[in-house]
Amino acid sequence: MRILVVNPNTTASMTGKIAAGARAVAAPGTEIIAVSPLDGPASIEGYYDEVFAIPGMIGEMQKAGPVDATVIACFDDTGLDAARSFSDSPVIGIGEAGFHMASLVAGRFSVVTTLSRSIAALEHNISKYGLASRCARVRAAEVAVLDLEKPGSAACDRISEEIARALREDGAEAIVLGCAGMVDLAADLSRQHGVPVIDGVAAAVKLAEGLAGMGLKTSKVGGYARPLTKTYSGSMAKFSPR
User: Fold this and answer.
1) Mean pLDDT over each residue of the chain, to the nearest integer
2) Strand order in the sheet with 91-93
3) Are residues 76 and 143 in the same domain?
4) Cross-strand bridge partners of residue 5
5) Domain count, the chain
6) CATH, residue 27
7) One domain, residues 216 and 189
8) How far, in Å, CA of 9 to CA of 26, rounded?
9) Mean pLDDT, to the nearest integer, of 183-205?
10) CB 3.0 to 4.6 Å from 197: which of 36, 85, 107, 189, for a disulfide?
11) Do 49 and 112 belong together in one domain?
12) Does residue 191 share a domain with residue 125?
C-alpha cells in the first residue's frame, strides 16, 4: 500500500517530522511518501495562507501519480475538497481524522491548536463534519506554527498548559492536537494528562489504510466529481483539468 502524505507548507523540517510520525503508525508493508511543495507559505496560519498553499499541494499530488490514499497534513484540512475532486483514491484531512477518532474514544473532546486566528476555521470544519455537539471547545495555545520547529522553545509547555485548562474547564475527555507540527507530542502529553491525546497525522494514516484496504474510492457523483475540462491561464495553466 502506498500512502502519499502532503504537507501543504514549504517547511522541510516539519515534513520530515510528519513523515516520521506517519511511518511510526503505518502497518508493515505500507509505504509512506511524504512531500511538500517548493512554492507557497512556510506555515499556514489563516485563510490567506491557505489559499496560496493549495496549488502547490495539488501539484505534489499530480507529481506523485497513482497512490492508494492521500493524507493532507494540515489541520485546517487545506484544500481537502479540491484534493478529493482531483483524486480517485481516498483523501483524508488530518483535522477531520482527528475529530472522528476523538469521537470514538470520548464523549466530548477539546481541540488545542496553535494561534487563536485558527479557531474560526476549525470551528467551521467541526460543524461541517457534524461533530459540533461532541466538541467542547477549540482552544489556542498562542504558539506560532514555526515555533514548533525551534528546539528549546516554550511551545510544548504552552500546549500542555492549555490541555490542562481544557480538562479542568471544558469537561473534555480527550484532546485533539490542532497542528501537524505537534505530531511528535501526542504520546507524551497523553501520559502526562491521563487522557487520549490524538495526533491527526496518525489518525489520518490509519483511516487511509482502512479505506484503501476496503477498496473504497472517492465518489465521483456530486460534489467530488472530476473537474470539467477547461483551460486555465497563465501560471495556473499546468492545473488545467483534462
Assistant:
1) 96
2) 31-35, 2-6, 69-72, 91-93
3) no
4) 34, 71
5) 2
6) 3.40.50.12500
7) no
8) 22
9) 97
10) 189
11) no
12) yes
Helix (H) or strand (E) holding 198: strand 197-199
**Same domain, residue pair 42 and 161:** no
Nearest to 105 by CA among 190, 162, 3, 182: 190
What are the backbone dihedrals phi and psi of residue 170, each rounded to the nearest 5 degrees, phi first?
Answer: -95, -15
Residues 45 and 131: their CA atoms lie apart, in Å, by 23
Q: Kind and range of the H or E element at 119?
A: helix 119-128
- Residue at 8: amino acid letter: P
Q: Are residues 65 and 134 in the same domain?
A: no
Contact 22, 3 (CB under 8 A): yes
d(CA 200, CA 207): 10
213 and 171, same domain (yes or no): no
Taking only the tens place, the pLDDT of each residue in 56-68 is 999 999 999 999 9
* DSSP 8-state secondary structure symbol assigned to residue 113: E
Quote the CA–CA distance of 1 and 236 in Å, as a whole number: 31
CA–CA separation, 23 vs 50, rounded Å?
A: 26
Q: Which residue segment(s) compose the domain that 86 sits in?
A: 2-93+203-239
134: left (phi over 0), alpha (psi -120 to 50) or beta: alpha
pLDDT tier at 158, thresholds 50, 70, 90: very high
